[in-house]
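Predict the 3D structure for this chain.
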Amino acid sequence: MSDDPLNWLFARQRFGVHPGLGRVQALLASVGHPQHAFQTVLVGGTNGKGSTAAVLASILSADGRRTGLFTSPHLTRFAERFQVDGQEVPQEGVDAALARLRPHAEGVGATFFEIVTALGALLFAEAGVKLAVMEVGLGGRLDSTNVLDPVLSVVTSVALDHTDVLGNTLEAIASEKAGILREGRPAVTGVAANLLPLLRATGADLWALGEEMRVQTRSLGWRGAEVALELPDASLNFQTRLLGAHGAQNAALAAAAAWRLGAGEGAVQAGAAATHWPGRLELLPWRGGRVLLDGAHNPDGARALAATLRGLEVAPLPVIFGAAGDKDVGGVVEALRPYVSHAILTRAALSPRAALAADLAPLFAGLPVTLTGSPGEALDLLAALNAPLALACGSLYLIGELRPLLLGTPGEERERWQ
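Done. Predicted structure below.
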C-alpha cells in the first residue's frame, strides 16, 4: 500500500470510468457533505468548458466573492485542478485532504474522478469558498459533479466525443449534457439551435446564444478580442485574451452566467481581461520563436483551432502532433491539414492511451513527416527547423508534457489516464 496519497489516487485511474452518482453521494456523506458549505455552478459541454469556467471564476472573484474553480484534466500539476480566487490550493493541503478522504473512498469503492470531485468539495469548504465553479468531467447526467446542486448551469457546446459512453448522435450527447440543468433555475448555453429543444425540455430558465443572447466580436489579433454581448436585460462590453471566435464565445457565455449571478459590468470587464487559460491557444516564446499550444483533441475542437489560425492569417507551419488512440484522429488531422507544413509526430510519454507516432503517420500522407519518440525529441527537431512560429496540438496530455519543457519548469512523472 502506497503512503503517498497521490500515488494511491493515480493508481485508481486504471479502474476506469463508471458513470453513476451513488458512490460519490456516499463518499460526500461520509465526510459530512462539504458541498453544502458553498453554492455551485456546473459548466459542461464537449469543448470550451474549461476556458468558460476559468473566465466565470475570474469574474466572480473580481466581483468580490471567494470563488473556487475545479477543472480537469490538469496539465502538469495535480493541484491545478483546485483554485481559490485564481491561486492553486497548496499541494500539502491537497495531500492532507486526500489522506483523510482515502479510507472513505476505499470504503465505497469510489473511482478516480469521484474521489477528485469529493476532494474539490472538501478543499473548497475548508477554504471558505462561497461559490464553486465546477467543470463537468464526462457528459453531465451521470458525471460525479452532478451530485452537486447548481444555482446555475452552463452547457458550452455539443459535438461528437466519448461516443462509447455518451452515444453516437449529437442528440444523445446533448441529452446527457442537459442533465446538469435544473428546472426553474438559470442556465446559459452556446449549443446549436437544433439541439436547444432538448435543453429547454428540462424546464431550466435558459438563455441561448443566438436567441436570448447575441454576441458580436472584433478580433484584436494575438491579443484576443473585444466582445459586445446583448442580454435580455443588459448590454455588456469587455475584452478577453482568449484567442479565436470560439474563445470569444466562451468568454461571452461566462459573462452572461456571471451577470445572471449578480456580477456587475465592472467585474465582467476586469475578470474577463485577467483570465489566462494555459494550454488552450496559448502562445509561448521558445528559442527565438514562438510555439502555440492547443489541446484540440476532437474534430470540432480542431475546426475551431483551424478557424483561429485562418483568422490570424497564419501560413502553414510546423506542427508537433500526438493524440490518444481512442479519438477520431482522422477528423482532427483533416481539419488541420491546410495549416501543416511539416508534421512532427510524437506521443505523450506518460499517457498509456497515446497512439504511436508511426500509427499517426498515414493520416499525414502527402506532407513532410518526421517520427519522434518523445515530446523532448520533437522539440529538438522543431529547433532544427528554425521556424518563427510552430503549433503543438492533438492531446492535452501531450501539451501537459511539452509546456514545462518550453518553460524550463518541472513536469509530472505519473502516468495519466484521466
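The radius of gyration is 21 Å.
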